[in-house]
Amino acid sequence: MIDYEVFCQIKQQQAEGLKATQIVLALGLDERTTRKWMSGERYRPAPERSAGQQAGYLRDRDPRLARTAPVHRAQIFQKLRQEGYAGGVTS
Question: How far apart are CA 16 and CA 44, in angstroms?
Answer without folding.
Answer: 22
